[in-house]
């Protein structure tokens, strides 16, 4: 908590600094107005261009004029000493027959036409989010008569009285047009411009900013305007469907497929130019200016050994407007659809169906078993007394009937009563609550000629939809810069995150927290209205008596949510400093340093009354030498287990930047050195007999040596014990709570160079080189450093002379690249590794275990990527996009290699595998309608498609048994996500195994067990990762209303779903899958394994991994639907409000189509995730 307190003090001080500098910066910017300025100019025969330059030098005003106009104007004589600026301008403009207009610090010069009929047009130009745009060019038709918008996005222009068209253009925005009819009256027309994602002029790679025409690599840019169209709690979800080649399937983010078997496969995250160790979920979605996804080697090879999986470069927002403080506030309320707990919808038998199915079996078991059951009454009696086998209410009712304790009528009455119960519904009513998530964001931004300041504060709260559960997060960031001198700019960013969550704690018997782990007909409440305790295997049952001193082990679901809790706290800080030195024209240098800390604390508290502590006390009762009953653990108090981990990371970079244009030659180059260090440490602490209120414990009374050697309880479950105390108590509850978090400490060093050359704005050549060093690989000096490089070329075809007459082609670029990038597997090292253990049970001395031998030849994984692409903009850039083909070959991929057992190891990790990802990507945007003003319709469609073929081209799979291959499915010639299955051969009707699943084995025969069989009995069932991913986003705007809908398609992959798991005949203690309604019987032979009388007495993994559980996983879904409204700006004139908007969004509505015929959602393998409804408010001042 000390760390969090310090973080709060830093952020509070930062906010005070921001307020002071914002206010100070504003007053500086607003000090001088043109009407109060004076100039001194005395010159003869001065050109108008020289006059404008001199005025700019004295006043800071910028002049906008046509070069053709300036060349035709006569030279002038000016005599002015400390005269008002406007007087001098009036005099000079009259001499040359021109007119001028001043807006802010912009002076627009146009030719005055004698007798012309003109009118004034004015308005505000903004982007999709309502942000006013500064510096938008506004021109009359194709003439040279233009102006630009001021610091408030305002423009004014005198236009002819006859009909004409105003054309608006701005960097990164699609051109807009406004058609004006004839007339003399002044007009007011506000314009909203749309972001041009495909042809955005600047790409931020992290190490540099480069114009899109000069890029030879494959990059997709998503701007804040596009991100703001829909609300997501994290950036990952907001990128889905918008970036070709990016997959977020099932929460796993990859770019252009998987390129490693065991190493990291997620893209590298870069924030404001520097890689960070934080999670992508840490990013404040309201504070992102742009996201650039670097996909090929030419784009990301500069990141070297961390770039094989692609790079996501995030740039946070910065103040844009000078002279004022911008205040933005956003609030979003998300209400989640209640979880569907209907048994039939979740593929389970209803209470009525389960009662009937179970009653049928127990009727056979007790009354019609034809001698197949030796002594059913004694068997059930033993289960009741020992507690080692579940005894359900229906079994017990039939047991009573068999003993004559109840009549047939009473039995049937009990069954009818059970059918009226609904455990899931009553559980949900008591434990689930309406899930609601709230998120609030406040941003303050301002800038002046010296300062730039940004402060963003974000708070998120999620009640998690369960009792005694929650998750909250506070995220604050300050980002600022100061122009120390003309040659030096200093920048600083401080980001602090504090989060806290509470959830149910760990328990071997977690069945009380799983709604499907009790029979559907089980009553949730006792007759007196109290919540009923539930039992499961080794927890006893409702009908046994726990004799003294043992305690009842039933689990009350509601009480356990309060008696067994886990609280997780996280404190994350990131400090980023940057110094930019302007050395000479075109040459700059910058030094950056980033320091990150990440502290996590996990506290697991099981109270005295929790199921965990009752189990622990029961397990460790023993009889002393004098015959008294004692306990090895405290008989009062609970458990507190604390795990602390601290991560500390820093990155230092020094870089030279050169950019210069010489006639037709343009050169951009960077060179630098980078150093990085990561360190993670941690510890664990355990207290038993813990009293949270008194803050006391009695851990010191425990003999850990005795407990560590006790495999079974001395007394529990019989006088000679029998309860597996080591497996169920000591190892998970005590042993795991002691010791340290293994320390990891690594250092890295890199040198890099990057050059882009452009000739005549037509031909680009690119090259980059980087060499990385890491202490992970160090025994062999040959592999300590690895060179990584890339080359690329681009041809701007639209700039060729032969293209000038092809007006419908606005932009056309052909590019190609090849390069080598790397990847590190943190789990491998060149050195021999060993782990320390507890005390040896025989010597009572500590011992260690050698985990892996030394391997001096370990090195980086490498990916060699070829990319060919076309970027285009057609039909006045209405149709724009890109097409890419890539071939990505991964070499030296980490995998297991079989060793001679005489070495002491059966296998080891080496660089021996290889993989290939090959595919195409298509990204197209089309503007069906372009509305230049609020009242016009606009409609844009964005479509993305990618097809990726993933193959393991070389690997040794040491698996020789079928079960091993299923667990480690890597085979040469197959995808890395291959699914391997046992071949289903029907249901047996033979005596002794009736109703059991059969599977084909090596000799062509059939068997109900594949244990120990070779991998030849398996068949390849497809891959689990999608081959084809498509996204389509439609956005429509009119008169302040906005509507968008995002659809996503994933296809070409398979899934396992509704596997026909065989059920033990006497274990009916959970809800039962509904497919067993069609279970095999001699009278009704099916492909569903038998249950009850015909259930298998032995089970394995064969049915779970059978090919009859394989289904197509293709699906088409609507991800979200968004309806928004921006209130007219004129409604708020004089109020200080610049923008007010409302939004309603539906996330995850019902899927449109699934390929499987069992109606399973491929992303959940069950029901779809609940829909959520989002209400949003955005207001700007």
Automatic annotation (TrEMBL):
Topological relation to the membrane, as annotated: Multi-pass membrane protein
Presence of the UniProt keyword Transmembrane helix in the record: no
TonB-dependent receptor-like beta-barrel domain segment(s): 528-1018
Annotated localization: Cell outer membrane
InterPro entries the UniProt entry points to: Beta-barrel_TonB, Beta-barrel_TonB_sf, CarboxyPept-like_regulatory, Plug_dom, Plug_dom_sf, TonB-dep_OMP_SusC/RagA, TonB-dep_OMP_SusC/RagA_CS, TonB-dep_rcpt-like
Signal peptide: 1-31
Limits of the TonB-dependent receptor plug domain: 214-311
Sorted UniProt keywords: Cell outer membrane, Membrane, Signal, TonB box, Transmembrane, Transmembrane beta strand, Transport
Superkingdom, natural source: Bacteria
Entry GO CC: cell outer membrane
Protein family membership: Belongs to the TonB-dependent receptor family.
Name of the protein this chain belongs to: SusC/RagA family TonB-linked outer membrane protein
Organism for this UniProt entry: Segatella copri
């Amino acid at each position: 908590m000390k760390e969090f307190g310090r973080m709060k003090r830093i952020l509070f001080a930062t906010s005070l600094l921001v307020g002071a500098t914002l206010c100070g910066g504003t007053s500086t910017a607003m000090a001088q107005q043109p009407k109060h300025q004076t100039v001194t100019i005395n010159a003869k025969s001065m050109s108008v261009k020289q006059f404008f330059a001199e005025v700019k030098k004295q006043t800071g005003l910028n002049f906008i004029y046509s070069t053709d106009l300036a060349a035709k104007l006569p030279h002038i004589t000016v005599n002015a000493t400390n005269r008002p600026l406007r007087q001098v301008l009036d005099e000079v403009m009259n001499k040359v027959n021109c007119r001028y207009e001043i807006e802010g610090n912009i002076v627009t010069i146009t030719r005055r036409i004698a007798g012309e009929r003109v009118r004034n047009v004015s308005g505000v130009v903004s982007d999709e989010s309502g942000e006013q745009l500064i510096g938008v060019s506004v021109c009359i038709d194709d003439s040279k008569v233009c102006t630009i918008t001021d610091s408030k996005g305002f423009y004014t222009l005198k236009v002819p009285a006859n009909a004409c068209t105003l054309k608006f253009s701005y960097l990164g925005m699609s051109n807009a047009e406004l058609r004006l009819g004839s007339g003399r009256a002044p007009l007011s027309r506000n314009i909203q411009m749309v972001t041009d994602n495909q042809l955005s002029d600047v790409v931020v790679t992290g190490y540099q900013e480069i114009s899109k025409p000069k890029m030879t690599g494959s990059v997709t840019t998503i701007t804040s305007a596009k991100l703001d169209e829909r609300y997501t709690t994290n950036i990952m979800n907001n990128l889905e469907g918008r970036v070709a080649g990016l997959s977020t399937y099932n929460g796993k983010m990859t770019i252009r497929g998987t390129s490693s078997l065991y190493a990291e496969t997620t893209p590298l995250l870069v924030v404001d130019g520097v890689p960070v160790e934080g999670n992508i979920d840490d990013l404040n979605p309201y504070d992102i200016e742009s996201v650039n996804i670097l996909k090929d080697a030419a784009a990301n090879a500069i990141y070297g050994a961390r770039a094989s999986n692609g790079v996501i470069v995030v740039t946070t927002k910065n103040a844009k407007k000078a002279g004022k403080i911008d205040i933005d506030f956003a609030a979003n309320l998300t209400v989640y659809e209640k979880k569907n707990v209907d048994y039939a919808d979740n593929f389970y038998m209803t209470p009525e169906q389960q009662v009937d199915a179970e009653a049928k079996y127990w009727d056979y078991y007790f009354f019609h078993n034809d001698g197949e059951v030796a002594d059913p009454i004694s068997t059930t009696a033993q289960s009741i007394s020992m507690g080692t086998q579940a005894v359900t209410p229906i079994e017990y009712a039939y047991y009573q009937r068999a003993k004559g304790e109840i009549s047939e009528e009473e039995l049937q009455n009990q069954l009818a009563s059970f059918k009226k119960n609904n455990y899931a519904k009553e559980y949900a009513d008591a434990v689930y609550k309406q899930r609601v998530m709230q998120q609030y964001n406040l941003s303050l931004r301002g800038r002046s000629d010296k300062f730039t300041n940004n402060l963003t504060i974000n708070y998120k709260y999620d009640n998690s939809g369960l009792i005694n559960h929650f998750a909250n997060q506070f995220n604050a960031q300050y980002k600022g810069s100061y122009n120390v001198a003309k040659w030096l700019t200093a920048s600083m960013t401080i980001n602090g995150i504090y989060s806290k969550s509470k959830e149910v704690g760990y328990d071997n018997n977690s069945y009380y927290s799983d709604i499907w782990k009790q029979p559907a007909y089980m009553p949730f409440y006792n007759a007196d209205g109290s919540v009923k305790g539930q039992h499961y295997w080794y927890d006893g049952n409702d009908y046994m008596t726990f004799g003294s001193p043992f305690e009842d082990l039933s689990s009350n679901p509601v009480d356990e949510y309060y008696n067994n809790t886990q609280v997780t706290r996280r404190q994350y800080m990131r400090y980023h400093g940057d110094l930019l030195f302007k050395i000479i024209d075109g040459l700059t240098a910058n030094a950056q340093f980033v320091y990150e800390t990440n502290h996590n604390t996990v506290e697991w508290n099981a109270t005295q009354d929790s199921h965990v502590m009752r189990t622990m006390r029961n397990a460790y009762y023993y009889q002393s030498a004098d015959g008294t009953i004692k306990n090895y653990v405290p008989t009062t108090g609970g458990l507190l287990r604390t795990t602390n981990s601290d991560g500390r990371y820093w990155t230092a970079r020094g870089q030279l930047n050169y950019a210069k244009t010489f006639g037709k030659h343009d050169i951009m180059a960077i060179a630098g050195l980078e150093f990085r260090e990561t360190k993670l440490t941690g510890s664990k602490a355990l207290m038993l007999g813990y009293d949270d209120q008194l803050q006391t414990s009695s851990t010191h009374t425990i003999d850990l040596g005795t407990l560590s050697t006790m495999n079974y309880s001395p007394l529990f479950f019989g006088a000679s014990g029998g309860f597996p105390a080591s497996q169920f108590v000591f190892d998970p509850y005590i042993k795991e709570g002691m010791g340290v978090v293994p320390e990891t400490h690594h250092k890295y060093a890199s040198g890099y160079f990057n050059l882009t050359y452009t000739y005549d704005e037509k031909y680009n050549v690119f090259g980059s080189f980087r060499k990385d060093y890491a202490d992970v690989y160090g025994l062999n000096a040959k592999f300590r450093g690895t060179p990584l490089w890339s080359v690329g070329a681009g041809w701007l075809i639209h700039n060729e002379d032969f293209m000038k007459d092809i007006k419908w082609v606005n932009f056309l670029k052909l590019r190609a690249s090849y390069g080598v990038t790397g990847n590190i597997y943190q789990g491998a090292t060149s050195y021999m590794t060993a782990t320390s253990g507890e005390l040896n049970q025989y010597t009572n001395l500590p011992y260690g275990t050698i985990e892996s031998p030394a391997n001096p030849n370990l090195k980086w994984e490498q990916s060699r990527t070829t990319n060919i692409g076309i970027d285009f903009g057609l039909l006045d850039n209405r149709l724009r996009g890109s097409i890419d083909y890539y071939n990505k070959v991964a070499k030296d991929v980490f995998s297991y290699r079989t060793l001679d057992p005489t070495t002491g190891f059966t296998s080891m990790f080496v660089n021996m595998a290889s993989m290939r990802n090959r595919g195409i990507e298509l990204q197209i945007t089309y503007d069906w309608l372009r509305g230049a003003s609020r009242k016009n319709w606009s409609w844009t469609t964005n479509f993305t498609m990618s097809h990726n073929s993933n193959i393991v081209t070389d690997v040794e799979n040491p698996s020789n048994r079928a079960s091993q291959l299923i667990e480690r499915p890597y085979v040469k010639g197959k995808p890395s996500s291959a699914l391997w299955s046992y071949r289903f051969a029907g249901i047996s009707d033979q005596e002794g195994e009736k109703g059991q699943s059969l599977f084909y084995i090596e000799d062509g025969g059939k068997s109900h067990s594949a244990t120990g069989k070779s991998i030849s009995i398996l068949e390849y069932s497809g891959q689990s990762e999608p081959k084809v991913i498509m996204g389509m986003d439609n956005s429509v705007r009119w008169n302040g209303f906005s509507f968008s809908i995002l659809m996503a398609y994933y296809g070409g992959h398979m899934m396992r779903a509704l596997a026909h798991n065989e059920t033990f005949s006497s274990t009916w203690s959970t809800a039962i899958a509904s497919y067993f309604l069609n279970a095999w019987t001699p009278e009704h032979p099916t492909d569903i394994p038998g249950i009850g009388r015909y259930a298998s007495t032995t089970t394995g993994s064969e049915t779970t991994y059978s090919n009859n559980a394989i289904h197509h996983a293709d699906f088409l879904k609507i991800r979200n639907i968004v309806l928004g409204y921006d209130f007219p700006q004129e409604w708020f004139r004089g109020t200080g409000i610049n923008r007010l908007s409302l939004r309603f969004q539906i996330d995850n509505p019902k899927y449109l189509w699934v390929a499987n015929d069992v109606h399973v959602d491929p992303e959940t393998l069950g029901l779809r995730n609940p829909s959520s409804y989002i209400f949003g408010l955005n207001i700007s001042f």
